[in-house]
Amino acid sequence: MDIFKKKLVSFIKAVIKEKKNIDISDEESEKLIKNPPDVSFGDYSLASYYLARYGFKGKPEDIAEEIFNFFAPNFADIEELFDKIEIKGAYVNFFVNKEKFASFVVRDVTDSGGDYGRGAPQKPLKVIIDFSSPNIAKPFGVGHLRSTVIGMSLSKIYEFCGHNAIKINYLGDFGTQFGKLITAFCRYGDIDFSEFEKDPVKILYGLYVRIHKDEQADATVEEEAKNRFKTLEDFISVNKRSFEEYLGGVNSVNNINGKNIENGSGGEADSACASGNTKLSGENKNFFCGTPEGQYNLWKLFRKLSIDEFKRIYESIGIEFDAYEGEAYSAEFSKDIKEILLESGIAEISEGAVIVNVKGVKAPALIAKSDGTSLYLSRDIVTAVSRMAKYNFDKMIYVVGSEQALHFSQLFGIFGKLKENIQKIKDNPNFKNYASIIDGRLVHVKFGRIIGMSTRKGNLVFLEDYIEEARIKAKEKLEERPKILGGDLNALNPDIEPGVNKEPAESENEQIYSTSLKVGVGAVIFNDLKTRRTTDVNFSWDNVLSFEGQTGPYLQYTVSRINSLVSKLGVPDSKGKNPDVAFSKNDADFNDIFLIARQIAFFGDALNEAMEQNEPSVLSSYALELASLFNKYYQNYRLIGNAKDYVEPRFFMLSAVRMVLIRILNLLCVPVLERM
RNA sequence: GCGUUCAUAGCUCAGUUGGAUAGAGCAACAGCCUUCUAAGCUGUGGGUCGCAGGUUCGAAUCCUGCUGGACGCACCA
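The joint structure predicted for all components is written out below.
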């Protein structure tokens, strides 16, 4: 919060104390302060109708008058920072001293040394963010991009606000679908193993599409797939220890900063057959298709190949995880969950299957199938309890599409029911401990569908092709630029002096490649983060490939422009620490500088709102507005060629804009370019 | 049928959680590059906030009904 708002907060507290003898907190007081829709109304306003809750009575206009009459004689208290107070209808409007305001904000950003807006809560929360979660053996499509970028962005936002984010990728690596995949692999004898090694995920996807088609005509497919899945699950859970035992040991691995870094291995599931034969060929097909151990190895191989592929893609768009988990990991304990829930009466048997009736949800929650195999709901229960044991989280966010809203309301409802009935569970002290405190800490961050593609029909758009398309468009745009095409290609590379030391053509192409790739990736990612999560996205190439207006490249471009200008201006002597920044309202550009400073001052609010609502798009809109204000300024006023004491404060203003924009681009996973 | 969710300019979307005159960007049209990057800037046109009621000082926002779309609803994930 800036000092101006702080001043108002205490001013308003004072009036409520004086008039109604009520003490309100800073937070309450701050909530009463709004930003008027138009700067001509003032910079902050107090809406009198909010005061009704503190006992002020009468028409809003009269309350406003009463407040105003109190403020006016006490104006000296805030005179240092404010120019005037006005009454307008139901509002009391405050006008800041614009010169002081602009100077304060610019200096505030500059002094923060790149950390402007970073939060430092008294008690940082431990927040698990479960996102991306692709299904193995399927290509990474644009559908997964949304969860991936929303989750990654939220992780960064929580971290920047001072909390601990734990990023988990929960792979869809289990379930009947893998029975189907193994069935496909074993039924179709025409797999080219050398091709398979080259692009395994594509081949696996082909199998997936093919078996789905055959399933329609051939009823034995489903039968075989179910059996194979059962074999797989039985093989994995021929175990060794109970969930209770597992929970007893797991929190000992909890380390200091709350992060448990796991690699992409399958956790427990891996150890079941670590030395397995995973080299595929035509000869050992009998082993893979005919024995439980072979099938397990086959599944494990599919899993590994998929993860390798995912990691390559994540790296290319700057996504990383603290842990890779998988459903298979939890499958081992799904039987324990089933028994606990049944024994305690939380679950019941219906039509041979195990179900839980959850308060407020009509559809029964299915825990286990009538053939005894697990369903993903039961695996999610296991996972949540394991994570509580392991991380002791304050909050766990699932970034999953809104089509799974029912699933999550069932999952959350089950933890509510567990909490209520915890004493009915016999033994299992560890389980009771962890399971009872989960209720209320789970959040489903849902998002709308991308309309226009589907895996079943086989017309899935692969993420890599999608980015490639954007990259090519960016390259075309880049090559249209006269400066770059005409002569100075090296202008793209800040490390090379223009005109000197010309690099060979190949390197120039590399520059173009990397620049256009960053623009393409930026366009694609920003496109997913600029609208509110819950709205469905009508997929359109025209939209994604437009780099003008409200787009990622527009923001990247704005930063590049500032970079260029700043380097031409040269860094002032004061080097940026505690600079002497002062603006004069007599300068022609002052009003625009003020508007920029005002927008910068809103950054903290935008950040908070983005976190509270788990909504990165709040930052997207904010950044677009800031960039737009800057571009208007840039267009209308020239800096180069002016006197030093005119340029210097503006230099810091430019740097402040750049700092905030770069921060937001980072938070939104949009690459930042030096030049473009 | 039940449930969830959405409907704002031709198109894509904002709209400070019930507040001041409903805003941007695309697209269309008209302008601005010998001067800090034109992926930019300026201007014009474009609205019964799906429809009908209700709640109150005040509704795009809240409640009810209707219309239309999306998604989900027992052994997939």
